[in-house]
Each structure stands twice: as C-alpha cells, then as structure tokens.
Amino acid sequence: MSFDLNSLLRPHIAQLQPYTSARDEYTGKEGVFLDANENPYGSVTDADFNRYPDPYQSALKEKIALIKKVRPSQIFLGNGSDEAIDLLYRAFCRPGIDNVILLPPTYGMYEVSASINDVETRKVSLTSDFQLQPEKIFDQIDSNTKIIFVCTPNNPSGNKVNRADVLLLLKHFKGLVVVDEAYIDFNDEPSFTTHLDEYPNLLVMQTFSKAWGLASLRLGMAFASEELIKILNKIKPPYNISGLTQETVLAALGNQEKVEKMILEILKEREFLKSELEKLDFVKKIHPSQANFLLVQVPQATQIYNDLIDQKIIVRNRAKVLLCEDCLRITVGTREENTAFLKALQAVVKPIQS
Ligand SMILES: *Cc1c(COP(=O)(O)O)cnc(C)c1O
To answer: What CATH number labels 257-353?
Structure first.
C-alpha cells in the first residue's frame, strides 16, 4: 500500500518555519563567538558548560550510526524516548480529530502523551499470551488513524511479539508503525532497524536508559527514514540534548564491553530470580521474559506489594492492569537485591497464607 509522509503530516507542520539557532547559522568551531549571548568567562562549576551544545548531536549520531548500522540521517535523539513519542503526536495527530492505536497492556506513556495532545486512543488488547491481534487492529483503523504503537519486548509483560505480525502492520497500514525496542539489548532478536529501507512508515525507538545504565542522562533514540527524522528535527526544542549528555554518552559508546558484561550479568540474574520464584508454591505464574524484568502472578498482589514496601523492597504493582491481574513487575536486580526481594517476599506471604 502506498505511503505518503506529507499527507500524513499536520498541514501547519508542513508549512512551519523552524527556529534557527545561532549554532545553525554558523557551524564552525574556531572563532570569537559573540552570537549566542553566552557567558565568555566560563561556568560557575569546575567544568565549563557556558557554550550551547550541538543542536543536531552530529558526533554522537556518527558513533551511534556505526554501532546500530544505520545512517546518521536516520537518527533522531530525544530527551528520553518520551520526547520522541510527544513529537510524533504533535507532528502527525490533529487534536480532537486523529487517533492512534494502542495495544494494552503496554507502556503507559503512549496513552499519557496522547491525552496531553488531545488525541483519541483506540485500544486493541493483546492476546492472553501478549501477542498482537492483527485482524482486530485492522478493524479499528480509519482514515484518521495516524500511528500504531508496538512495544517489543513488551512492557509490562516482558515477551517479544511475533515479528510476522508487526511486518503485516508495516505492509498494510498507511500510517506510522512505531516499534519501541527499549528492551532490545536483553534478547537476541535482530532490531527492526534492519527494515528501515524497506518500510518508510517504520519508526524504531531505543533508549540509553535500560541496558546502558544511563537513565539519569535522558537519551532516547528514534530510527526512521531521513524524511521522518527531518520532521522531528524541525519541531524539537533546538538544544534538546545537553552538552553533558552528548559528551558522556559519546564516551560511554567507546566502552561497549562493559555494557555487554552488565547485560550478561542481568540475564544470569533473571534466570536466578526465575528459578527461585519457581520453587515458591504460592507463585501462580512467571511470564516468559526477554527483558530485564519479570511479570509474576501472586495471590493478593496489592497486599504483597504494600507489605514489600514496608520491608523497603519496591516493585511495580500491575495488579489492576488489563491481562495482568494479581501481577507484580519485578526488575532484575543484583544478586544481593534479588536475594533480599526473595526473602522479603516469603516473609510477607506467610501471614497472608495462614
Ligand atoms: C523504559 C522504557 C522506555 C524508556 O524511556 P526513556 O524516556 O528513554 O527513559 C521507553 N519505552 C518503554 C516501553 C520503556 O519501558
């Protein structure tokens, strides 16, 4: 089916004249810089932060491009993945008119961001084993449907969704298919970025918040066609990624060995946590996970959740979420943390069971 990015775009965004920053108009590195009203003496810190950062994060994108096997022009960097999600709504969804399709249970920000932007969400639940229902998704699509959000591995369930189902959406849907791969580093499935040149309606999101251990820096990646990336760049705040974040992540990218070591450790701990939970007869179900967390069904999840907090063990209560009845989402911790969790879990369950 034909895909036309320009007809998908909100008309006023197509016509928008973007802000041109001082660093847009002159990109050289040498000279006397009297163009951006910066402080010429430096910063009130040990390090100097007085100059505005590169608005397009060129050095960082070149390095990411090599690692992710895409072109730099196919990369958008945001202040967390959440910024890309918000910009997509603002670029493509007319408030009160357009709609997007969400596949619950899934990441909460797709819906919150839709609400902020006054965009209708149409929900097509996953199956009981958290797979897509393509037929039902296609039933919900109309001429104002702009985006379908797919999360794989999915949060909060932890599983991968069947690749063939996502490809079916990419083939037949004339709007954008966003594939959120926040947890891609915890499984060996190839990224959907390998399909970028095939599907101009594909946008893949990844993040430095999980496997890379850089959640506090706020850096999310979006990969898409050059045309789509240009649109996001056009409407983003000019200096959306701080200089400190750009420099720190650039340095981090040179230490891939450490990430890989940490990922292996987390995968080992995920198996440990799973096998220990399997030994507990009150645990009703441990959902298969390709991520760095486990979705676990227990009796009276909310009470267990509260009792765990009293023991200073904080997990995520998903008990009221569709298809996650009585489930807790437990992030894989270090061996010490996992052991502390397992001990506290057994202690709080005893009085509930008796
Ligand atoms: C954690 C997570 C993100 C990451 O968001 P950032 O804003 O990049 O920290 C994105 N999507 C999903 C599904 C997540 O669970």
So the answer is: 3.90.1150.10
CA–CA dist 218, 89 (Å, integer) = 20
Ligand 1 surroundings by CB, under 6 angstroms: 80-82, 107, 151, 155, 180, 182, 207, 209-210, 215, 220
Looking at 3.40.50.1240, 3.40.640.10, 3.30.450.20, 3.40.50.2300, the CATH number of the domain 5-254 comes to 3.40.640.10
129 pLDDT more than 90? yes
Is residue 339 predicted with pLDDT exceeding 90? Answer: yes
What would the pLDDT profile of 263-274 be if each residue is shown by its tens digit?
999 999 999 999
**Tens digit of each residue's pLDDT (9 = 90 or more) over 42-74:** 999 999 999 999 999 999 999 999 999 999 999
Domain 5-254 shares a fold with domain 257-353: no
Peptide bond into 40 cis (omega under 30): no
What is the residue extent of each domain of the chain? 5-254, 257-353
Characterize 44-63 residue by residue with b for buried, 16 or more Cβ atoms within 10 angstroms of its Cβ, and e for exposed: eeeeeebebbbbbbeebbeb
Closest protein CA for atom 10 of ligand 1: 182
> How far, in Å, from the CA of 288 to the mean position of ligand 1?
20
Whether 353 has a pLDDT exceeding 90, the answer reads no
What is the 81 CA–ligand 1 centroid distance (Å)? 6
